[in-house]
Amino acid sequence: MTEAATLEQARRLLFDEAACLDQRRWDDWLALYTPDCEFWVPAWKDEFVPTADPQGEVSLVYYDSRAGLEERVWRIKSTAAPAHRVLPRTCHAISNVRLLEVTADGLAVHATWRVDSYKEKIASSLFGFYDYLLTSQPGAWRIAKKKITLLSDCVPSYFDLYQV
Amino acid sequence: MDMRVTETGHTALTDPGRYFIDEPQAFNVHRDLFRDQALFELEMAHVFEAGWVFLCHESQLPNPHDFYTTQLGRTPVVVLRGEDGALRGFVNACPHRGTRLYTARHGTAQVQMCPYHAWCFDSAGHCVKIKDQSQAGYAPGFDGERHDLTPLAHLTSYQGFVFGALRADVPALADYLGDTRFFIDTFAEQSAQGMEILPGEVTYVYRGNWKLQVENTMDIYHLTTVHSTFAKIVQQRGEREASAAGADKVKAVNLGALSGLQAGTYTFPHGHTVFWGSDPLRENRALWAMRDDLLTRGVDAHKVEWMFRPRVLNFFPNIQFVDSACMQLRVIRPLAVDRTEMTMFCLAPRGEPREGRRRRLRQYEDFFNASGIATPDDVACYEDIHAGGLAHANSEWIQGFSRGMQYVVDGPDSHAREIGIRPLESCSGVEVQDETVFRGFYREWRRRLEAATHD
Ligand code: FES
Ligand SMILES: [Fe+2]
Question: I need a labelling partner for B181 at 20 to 30 A (CA). Which of A32, A89, B44, B101 fits?
Answer without folding.
Answer: B44
